[in-house]
Design a protein that fits this description.
This protein is mainly β and 73 residues long. The protein is built from 1 helix and 4 strands; from the N terminus they run βββαβ. The protein starts with a strand and ends with a strand.
């Protein structure tokens, strides 16, 4: 199984927000998915707000912020 590193934001039981770089297993792709080999990725303004625990931005945890990416299909 392939693995990747990701910034993961956790909301602990006491309300503390933590940010950790984790190595995670990648989900096995389904036949109808498009696979993109990411070359570069970045966090945008809303990602930064979510990573700092700004209320109303992130609704579920753990959160892997970042939707801005470039790569090859």
């Amino acid at each position: 199984m392939e693995r990747s590193k990701a910034l993961v934001v956790h909301n602990l039981d006491d309300g503390t927000i933590t940010r950790v770089i984790e190595t995670r297993n990648l989900t096995e792709p389904r036949e109808d998915w498009v696979r993109v080999r990411i070359k570069y990725s970045a966090l945008n303004y809303k990602d930064a707000l979510a990573a700092t625990g700004n209320p109303g931005v992130a609704l579920t945890f753990p959160l892997v912020p970042g939707i801005d990416a470039v790569g090859e299909v």
